[in-house]
Amino acid sequence: MHRPMSTPTRSRFRVGLPELISVLALVGIAWWLWPSIEPEPTPDRQCATPNAEFDCFLQVPGGTFWMGAQSTDRSAPGFDPDAEANEGPVHQVTVSPFWMLRFETSVGLYRRCVAAGKCTLDDLETGGGFSTYTEAQAEGTDAHSDRLPINSVSWQGAQRACAFLGGHLPTEAQWEWAARGPKAWRWAWGDQKACAIPPADLGFARLDMASITECTQDGPVYGDALPERGVFGTTGMSGNLWEWTSDWYAADAYGGHAAVDPLGPTDGTTRAQRGGSWMATTPQELRAAVRGGLDPEAKLNDVGFRCVFGDPP
């Protein structure tokens, strides 16, 4: 119902000492609860540091690339005969420098986050098949599996673990730039068709890539067991586990992207995931432009994440 306009009146508002104390207390609580975002990881977590921890971060330089893929115009940027509609429109994006975990976040890192009281097992599925975080690890009796990538984790659990380090989940643009680089590779290792783990009859030599039509991987593997390295040194961005990003997912999200450090939609019902997983049956499913969305509460055994440091989303 339309309300008639009324003549504004001027009133006095005085802040007394009790009100001021209440406001300052609220500000203090908000500051304490807000996760600390750091510009870079501590030296012991920088991969270039001698004897750096396993969960170390690589510097990813800033740059400009064609984000996305399209299958309609062979002469236009981003052509990929296997591209899906939600991978476009192809658009030029500039990404600022940031730091990214070399491997997917490990069980050991998540276990330390739980021990510090910053992560919770409520964000994990620990009893399902192929889940890498088990009750034994929670009790500290299965430390040899600490280098496995954490999976079966919700979006909130991933976000908490990154905040524990002082970082955050990557945006889709950060993730895709790290995976594809300035030449916008089709896979995170280049334009060569392959699977994350080569079929057993080919071995790691990759002698006959053109013959690969099916991928088989029986669960997630250790990050340092994967044979490929990305343009900036990351490993496992095509395959092993889908990776949560900070962005909300929308099939048409790219239509609203900014040209510099774009963010996803301001709201939604699913969070964007990238990279494919050990469940992929063909190399095409592992292309670095492939996008998906998942309920942020989901805890699936083919879903993990990796953290970044840099401008927070």
What does this structure look like?
- This protein has 313 residues and is α+β, with helices and mostly antiparallel strands.
- The protein has a single domain, classed as paralog of FGE (formylglycine-generating enzyme), CATH 3.90.1580.
- Helices cover 16% and strands 12% of the residues.
- It contains five helices and nine strands.
- The strands form three sheets. A four-stranded mixed beta sheet has the order 7-6-5-8.
Strand order of the largest sheet: 7-6-5-8
Number of helices: 5
Q: At the first level of CATH, what is the class?
A: Alpha Beta
Task: Report the strand count.
Answer: 9
Given as residue ranges, the uncertain stretches (5+ residues, pLDDT < 50) are 1-13, 23-35, 201-207
- CATH fold-type name: paralog of FGE (formylglycine-generating enzyme)
Which percent band covers the strand fraction?
5-15%
Mean pLDDT over the full residue set: 86
Main β-sheet description: 4 strands, mixed
Compute the CA-based radius of gyration: 22 Å
Q: Could you give the order of the helices and strands?
A: HEEEEHHHHEEEEE
The first-to-last residue Cα distance is 39 Å
